[in-house]
Amino acid sequence: MARRSLAQSRVLITGASSGIGRELALAFARRGARLLLAARRESELNVVADQCRRQSSGAEAILCPGDLTDPGYRHALIRRAAEHWQGLDVLVNNAGVSAHGRFAISDETTLRQVMELNFFAAAELTRLAIPLLKRAGRPAIVNIGSIIGHRGLPLNSEYAASKFALRGWTESLRAELAADGIDVLLVSPGTTETEFFDHLVAKTAELPWGESTAIPAAAVAEQTVRALERSRHEIFPNWRGRALVVANRLFPGLVDRALAKLAAAGDKG
Ligand SMILES: NC(=O)c1ccc[n+]([C@@H]2O[C@H](COP(=O)([O-])OP(=O)(O)OC[C@H]3O[C@@H](n4cnc5c(N)ncnc54)[C@H](OP(=O)(O)O)[C@@H]3O)[C@@H](O)[C@H]2O)c1
């Protein structure tokens, strides 16, 4: 199949105010896409929209600030796309949060907060977007998952649950939407240089593996947009993360033991 052209395509990106979402907006703008940017911080969204317009002169970047866990806001976002563009070509579910700590001393509120944004908001926004996507020429959904959606890590149980849920749902959706010509891409980054770790909904432990192997958010964004152009189904932007997934498939017992040791080290951290 011919490469997907993103010029003039209508793209809705959630979590566009920072990190991977911000870099995705810039990568789409470089290709001449039209952007609808979503997140809570309006001032940050404005900065990103200006950067998109400056980078690609005349690029269209509009904002719709709000909280994705609010069903009313999700409806407003899709209404905005329908009224402004009369359609949608690409939906990027990128907004996400995490929590660090032991499950046993965490609480239900933390689990629900992480699931609410990372899984339910993405799923319900997608449900609303599907009728618009069905009318587009070469539509696609991009879900930003995580390596931790392939292998659970200690002190990250809520996040692992949310990203496993996202991955399973993504696979079901890909099969269901194939007949409608809607591509569904799952992106599973490893540690990435963003504000992510400053915005945890709860923190009762330090992750013992640190952030030393993080890759730039721009690299994740560029690989994501290229994968979309090539209609790929799944990518792992960080080779270390990919190596963990492969090791877990081949030697699950060994990986379990190594992670148990890391969890114990986390207690001392
Ligand atoms: N950084 C990593 O190491 C890493 C690794 C693997 C996967 N990921 C995934 O990558 C995605 C992007 O994260 P990031 O690393 O770029 O972190 P980030 O810079 O903290 O970006 C998170 C984005 O989500 C938005 N957001 C958070 N809560 C929201 C809410 N309730 N409603 C609307 N928007 C909300 C934030 O904007 P506002 O605060 O303005 O609302 C921000 O734009 C996430 O899905 C994350 O799970 C990250």
Automatic annotation (TrEMBL):
Query: Which SMART domains does its entry note?
Result: PKS_KR
The broad enzyme category this protein falls into is oxidoreductase
Question: Any idea which UniProt keywords this protein has?
Answer: Oxidoreductase
Q: Where would one find coiled-coil regions in this protein?
A: none
Q: Name one GO cellular component term.
A: membrane
UniProt-recorded name of the protein: General stress protein 39
Classification via InterPro entries: KR_dom, NAD(P)-bd_dom_sf, Sc_DH/Rdtase_CS, SDR_fam
The record lists the lineage as: Bacteria, Pseudomonadati, Planctomycetota, Planctomycetia, Pirellulales
Q: Which PANTHER family does this entry report, sorted A to Z? A: DEHYDROGENASE/REDUCTASE SDR FAMILY MEMBER 7B, DEHYDROGENASE_REDUCTASE SDR FAMILY MEMBER 7B
Give the EC number.
1.-.-.-
Which GO terms label this protein's molecular function in UniProt?
A: oxidoreductase activity
Q: Where is the Ketoreductase domain?
A: 9-188
One Pfam family name from the record?
adh_short
Per the record, the similarity remark reads:
Belongs to the short-chain dehydrogenases/reductases (SDR) family.
The highest taxon in the source lineage is Bacteria
Per the UniProt entry, what species is this protein from, by scientific name?
A: Lacipirellula limnantheis
